[in-house]
Protein backbone atom coordinates (compact mmCIF):
# COMPACT_ATOMS: atom_id res chain seq x y z
CA UNK A 1 0.00 0.00 0.00
CA UNK A 2 1.36 3.41 -0.94
CA UNK A 3 0.59 6.72 0.77
CA UNK A 4 -0.21 9.62 -1.50
CA UNK A 5 -1.91 12.98 -1.69
CA UNK A 6 -5.33 13.65 -0.25
CA UNK A 7 -8.42 15.40 -1.57
CA UNK A 8 -6.98 18.74 -0.46
CA UNK A 9 -3.93 18.51 -2.69
CA UNK A 10 -3.29 18.96 -6.41
CA UNK A 11 -4.32 15.99 -8.67
CA UNK A 12 -0.69 15.27 -9.57
CA UNK A 13 -0.07 14.03 -6.01
CA UNK A 14 -2.49 11.11 -6.52
CA UNK A 15 -0.25 9.49 -9.12
CA UNK A 16 1.64 6.37 -8.12
CA UNK A 17 4.98 7.74 -9.24
CA UNK A 18 4.62 11.06 -7.41
CA UNK A 19 6.01 11.71 -3.93
CA UNK A 20 5.48 15.00 -2.15
CA UNK A 21 8.06 16.29 0.27
CA UNK A 22 6.62 16.54 3.79
CA UNK A 23 8.35 17.61 6.98
CA UNK A 24 8.19 15.28 9.96
CA UNK A 25 6.17 17.73 12.03
CA UNK A 26 3.80 18.80 9.27
CA UNK A 27 0.06 18.10 9.72
CA UNK A 28 -2.64 17.72 7.10
CA UNK A 29 -6.42 17.39 7.10
CA UNK A 30 -6.46 14.79 4.34
CA UNK A 31 -4.43 11.70 3.43
CA UNK A 32 -4.85 9.29 0.53
CA UNK A 33 -3.93 5.61 0.22
CA UNK A 34 -3.12 3.71 -2.97
CA UNK A 35 -3.94 0.02 -2.66
CA UNK A 36 -2.04 -2.44 -4.83
CA UNK A 37 -2.72 -6.12 -5.49
CA UNK A 38 -0.14 -8.67 -4.44
CA UNK A 39 1.28 -11.27 -6.80
CA UNK A 40 -0.22 -14.14 -4.81
CA UNK A 41 -3.87 -13.25 -4.36
CA UNK A 42 -4.96 -16.88 -4.67
CA UNK A 43 -2.51 -18.09 -2.06
CA UNK A 44 -3.59 -15.32 0.32
CA UNK A 45 -7.18 -16.51 -0.05
CA UNK A 46 -6.01 -20.05 0.73
CA UNK A 47 -4.09 -18.90 3.80
CA UNK A 48 -7.17 -17.10 5.08
CA UNK A 49 -9.32 -20.19 4.56
CA UNK A 50 -6.74 -22.33 6.34
CA UNK A 51 -6.66 -19.93 9.28
CA UNK A 52 -10.44 -20.16 9.57
CA UNK A 53 -10.23 -23.97 9.73
CA UNK A 54 -7.60 -24.74 12.41
CA UNK A 55 -8.78 -28.35 12.75
CA UNK A 56 -8.23 -29.16 9.05
CA UNK A 57 -4.83 -29.88 7.51
CA UNK A 58 -4.89 -27.65 4.42
CA UNK A 59 -2.16 -26.66 1.96
CA UNK A 60 -2.58 -22.97 0.95
CA UNK A 61 0.34 -23.26 -1.49
CA UNK A 62 -1.90 -25.45 -3.67
CA UNK A 63 -4.83 -23.02 -3.79
CA UNK A 64 -6.67 -22.64 -7.09
CA UNK A 65 -8.52 -19.34 -7.34
CA UNK A 66 -10.39 -17.14 -9.80
CA UNK A 67 -10.92 -13.51 -8.92
CA UNK A 68 -11.46 -9.96 -10.09
CA UNK A 69 -11.68 -6.46 -8.68
CA UNK A 70 -14.77 -4.57 -9.75
CA UNK A 71 -14.05 -0.88 -10.29
CA UNK A 72 -15.62 2.26 -11.72
CA UNK A 73 -14.23 5.51 -12.99
CA UNK A 74 -13.62 8.01 -10.21
CA UNK A 75 -14.13 11.74 -10.16
CA UNK A 76 -10.45 12.60 -10.65
CA UNK A 77 -9.61 13.67 -14.19
CA UNK A 78 -6.72 11.22 -14.52
CA UNK A 79 -6.16 8.59 -17.17
CA UNK A 80 -6.96 5.06 -15.97
CA UNK A 81 -8.04 6.34 -12.54
CA UNK A 82 -10.64 3.99 -11.09
CA UNK A 83 -12.23 3.36 -7.71
CA UNK A 84 -12.48 -0.24 -6.47
CA UNK A 85 -16.10 -1.16 -5.76
CA UNK A 86 -15.72 -4.78 -4.77
CA UNK A 87 -13.83 -8.06 -4.99
CA UNK A 88 -15.28 -11.30 -6.40
CA UNK A 89 -13.68 -14.72 -6.19
CA UNK A 90 -13.95 -18.49 -6.37
CA UNK A 91 -11.29 -20.43 -4.46
CA UNK A 92 -10.47 -23.99 -3.44
CA UNK A 93 -7.70 -24.92 -1.02
CA UNK A 94 -6.98 -28.69 -0.82
CA UNK A 95 -6.00 -30.83 2.11
CA UNK A 96 -2.25 -31.26 2.46
CA UNK A 97 -2.49 -34.97 1.67
CA UNK A 98 -5.05 -37.72 1.26
CA UNK A 99 -4.64 -40.83 3.38
CA UNK A 100 -5.22 -42.99 0.31
CA UNK A 101 -2.59 -44.22 -2.14
CA UNK A 102 -5.00 -44.92 -5.00
CA UNK A 103 -8.48 -43.96 -6.27
CA UNK A 104 -9.74 -47.43 -5.27
CA UNK A 105 -8.49 -46.97 -1.73
CA UNK A 106 -10.05 -43.48 -1.56
CA UNK A 107 -13.41 -44.88 -2.66
CA UNK A 108 -13.16 -47.70 -0.12
CA UNK A 109 -12.44 -45.21 2.66
CA UNK A 110 -15.34 -43.01 1.52
CA UNK A 111 -17.76 -45.92 1.83
CA UNK A 112 -17.08 -45.94 5.55
CA UNK A 113 -17.01 -42.17 6.05
CA UNK A 114 -16.88 -39.06 3.80
CA UNK A 115 -13.31 -37.93 3.04
CA UNK A 116 -12.45 -34.25 3.37
CA UNK A 117 -10.88 -32.87 0.17
CA UNK A 118 -10.53 -29.22 1.13
CA UNK A 119 -12.41 -25.96 1.54
CA UNK A 120 -14.29 -24.08 -1.15
CA UNK A 121 -15.18 -20.41 -0.87
CA UNK A 122 -16.94 -18.01 -3.23
CA UNK A 123 -18.47 -14.56 -3.30
CA UNK A 124 -20.81 -15.66 -6.10
CA UNK A 125 -24.21 -17.31 -5.95
CA UNK A 126 -23.83 -20.51 -7.95
CA UNK A 127 -26.46 -22.17 -10.11
CA UNK A 128 -24.98 -25.66 -9.74
CA UNK A 129 -24.31 -26.75 -7.13
CA UNK A 130 -26.90 -24.38 -5.75
CA UNK A 131 -24.81 -22.47 -3.23
CA UNK A 132 -25.04 -19.06 -1.61
CA UNK A 133 -21.88 -16.96 -1.22
CA UNK A 134 -19.84 -18.41 1.60
CA UNK A 135 -17.29 -21.02 2.63
CA UNK A 136 -17.87 -24.76 2.51
CA UNK A 137 -16.02 -27.93 3.43
CA UNK A 138 -15.91 -30.29 0.44
CA UNK A 139 -16.01 -34.02 1.15
CA UNK A 140 -15.92 -37.03 -1.15
CA UNK A 141 -18.61 -39.66 -0.69
CA UNK A 142 -18.78 -43.01 -2.45
CA UNK A 143 -19.89 -43.58 -5.09
CA UNK A 144 -18.63 -40.44 -6.88
CA UNK A 145 -20.42 -37.72 -4.94
CA UNK A 146 -19.27 -34.43 -3.45
CA UNK A 147 -20.83 -32.85 -0.38
CA UNK A 148 -20.63 -29.12 0.38
CA UNK A 149 -21.11 -28.38 4.07
CA UNK A 150 -21.34 -24.99 5.73
CA UNK A 151 -18.91 -23.97 8.44
CA UNK A 152 -21.63 -24.80 10.97
CA UNK A 153 -21.85 -28.36 9.61
CA UNK A 154 -25.22 -28.71 7.79
CA UNK A 155 -25.26 -30.09 4.25
CA UNK A 156 -25.69 -27.26 1.74
CA UNK A 157 -25.46 -29.24 -1.53
CA UNK A 158 -24.59 -32.67 -2.91
CA UNK A 159 -23.54 -33.27 -6.52
CA UNK A 160 -22.36 -36.19 -8.59
CA UNK A 161 -18.82 -36.10 -9.95
CA UNK A 162 -16.67 -38.03 -12.38
CA UNK A 163 -14.84 -41.05 -10.95
CA UNK A 164 -11.53 -40.09 -9.35
CA UNK A 165 -8.45 -41.06 -11.36
CA UNK A 166 -4.71 -41.36 -10.95
CA UNK A 167 -2.96 -38.47 -12.75
CA UNK A 168 0.60 -37.18 -13.15
CA UNK A 169 1.51 -34.72 -10.40
CA UNK A 170 0.84 -31.20 -11.69
CA UNK A 171 -0.74 -27.88 -10.95
CA UNK A 172 -4.48 -27.80 -10.57
CA UNK A 173 -6.04 -25.94 -13.51
CA UNK A 174 -9.19 -24.06 -14.38
CA UNK A 175 -11.18 -23.84 -17.60
CA UNK A 176 -14.11 -21.58 -18.37
CA UNK A 177 -16.85 -22.41 -20.85
CA UNK A 178 -19.65 -20.01 -21.73
CA UNK A 179 -23.22 -20.84 -22.78
CA UNK A 180 -23.10 -24.19 -21.04
CA UNK A 181 -26.20 -26.12 -20.01
CA UNK A 182 -26.68 -28.64 -17.26
CA UNK A 183 -29.62 -30.80 -16.38
CA UNK A 184 -30.70 -31.57 -12.85
CA UNK A 185 -33.75 -33.40 -11.53
CA UNK A 186 -35.98 -30.35 -11.94
CA UNK A 187 -35.01 -28.44 -15.07
CA UNK A 188 -32.29 -27.51 -17.51
CA UNK A 189 -29.81 -25.07 -16.02
CA UNK A 190 -28.07 -22.51 -18.21
CA UNK A 191 -24.99 -20.60 -17.18
CA UNK A 192 -21.22 -20.44 -17.42
CA UNK A 193 -19.23 -23.55 -16.61
CA UNK A 194 -16.13 -23.39 -14.45
CA UNK A 195 -14.07 -26.57 -14.29
CA UNK A 196 -11.59 -26.77 -11.44
CA UNK A 197 -9.46 -29.78 -12.36
CA UNK A 198 -7.72 -30.70 -9.13
CA UNK A 199 -4.64 -32.75 -8.46
CA UNK A 200 -4.62 -33.89 -4.83
CA UNK A 201 -1.51 -35.23 -3.12
CA UNK A 202 -1.64 -38.91 -2.13
CA UNK A 203 0.26 -40.40 0.77
CA UNK A 204 3.85 -41.39 0.04
CA UNK A 205 3.92 -40.29 -3.62
CA UNK A 206 5.36 -37.23 -5.36
CA UNK A 207 5.18 -38.23 -9.04
CA UNK A 208 1.41 -38.61 -9.25
CA UNK A 209 -1.75 -37.51 -7.50
CA UNK A 210 -5.46 -38.21 -7.39
CA UNK A 211 -7.36 -36.24 -10.02
CA UNK A 212 -10.81 -34.84 -9.45
CA UNK A 213 -12.89 -32.33 -11.38
CA UNK A 214 -14.95 -29.81 -9.46
CA UNK A 215 -17.66 -28.68 -11.91
CA UNK A 216 -19.39 -25.39 -11.14
CA UNK A 217 -22.08 -23.45 -12.97
CA UNK A 218 -22.36 -19.69 -12.48
CA UNK A 219 -25.13 -17.44 -13.77
CA UNK A 220 -24.80 -16.30 -17.39
CA UNK A 221 -22.72 -13.13 -17.67
CA UNK A 222 -21.09 -13.60 -14.27
CA UNK A 223 -17.63 -14.48 -15.57
CA UNK A 224 -16.11 -11.87 -17.87
CA UNK A 225 -12.74 -11.26 -19.50
CA UNK A 226 -11.41 -9.24 -16.55
CA UNK A 227 -11.30 -12.28 -14.26
CA UNK A 228 -7.89 -13.69 -13.35
CA UNK A 229 -6.84 -17.16 -12.26
CA UNK A 230 -4.18 -18.09 -9.74
CA UNK A 231 -2.63 -21.53 -10.07
CA UNK A 232 -0.43 -22.38 -7.11
CA UNK A 233 2.08 -25.23 -7.32
CA UNK A 234 4.60 -26.67 -4.91
CA UNK A 235 7.17 -23.97 -5.68
CA UNK A 236 5.50 -21.09 -7.52
CA UNK A 237 2.32 -19.06 -7.62
CA UNK A 238 1.29 -17.19 -10.72
CA UNK A 239 -1.68 -15.20 -11.94
CA UNK A 240 -2.91 -15.12 -15.51
CA UNK A 241 -5.95 -14.25 -17.56
CA UNK A 242 -8.65 -16.87 -17.38
CA UNK A 243 -8.81 -18.81 -20.63
CA UNK A 244 -12.20 -19.37 -22.17
CA UNK A 245 -13.81 -21.84 -24.53
CA UNK A 246 -16.87 -20.63 -26.41
CA UNK A 247 -18.01 -24.10 -27.39
CA UNK A 248 -21.38 -24.84 -25.78
CA UNK A 249 -21.31 -28.19 -24.00
CA UNK A 250 -23.57 -30.23 -21.78
CA UNK A 251 -22.21 -31.19 -18.39
CA UNK A 252 -22.97 -34.86 -18.89
CA UNK A 253 -21.17 -34.81 -22.25
CA UNK A 254 -17.84 -33.56 -20.87
CA UNK A 255 -15.10 -36.10 -21.24
CA UNK A 256 -13.34 -37.14 -18.02
CA UNK A 257 -9.99 -35.62 -17.16
CA UNK A 258 -7.43 -37.89 -18.84
CA UNK A 259 -5.13 -39.90 -16.61
Structural descriptors:
disordered C terminus, 2 helices
Structural features, described:
There is one protein chain. The chain is mainly beta. It has one domain. It contains 2 helices and 16 strands. The strands form 3 sheets. An 8-stranded antiparallel beta sheet has the order 9-8-7-5-4-3-14-15. Strands 6, 10, 11, 12, 13 and 16 form a 6-stranded mixed beta sheet that branches. A hairpin with a 3-residue loop joins strand 7 (134-141) and strand 8 (145-150). 27% of the residues are buried.
Short description:
By secondary structure, the protein is mainly beta. 8% of the residues lie in helices and 43% in strands.
Strand order of the largest sheet: 9-8-7-5-4-3-14-15
Query: How many domains would you count in the coordinates?
Result: 1
Helix proportion:
under 10%
Mean pLDDT score: 75
* Distance separating the two termini: 44 Å
Radius of gyration: 22 Å
Query: Count the strands?
Result: 16
**What structural class do helix, strand and pairing data support?**
mainly beta
Characterize the quaternary organization of these chains: single chain
User: Which range does the strand content fall in?
Assistant: 35-45%
Secondary structure blueprint with pairings:
Blueprint: E1 2-4, E2 32-34, H1 41-51, E3 64-73, E4 82-94, H2 103-112, E5 115-122, E6 126-128, E7 134-141, E8 145-150, E9 155-160, E10 165-168, E11 173-183, E12 188-201, E13 208-218, E14 228-232, E15 237-241, E16 244-245
Parallel strand pairs: 11-16
Antiparallel strand pairs: 1-2, 3-4, 3-14, 4-5, 5-7, 6-13, 7-8, 8-9, 10-13, 11-12, 12-13, 14-15
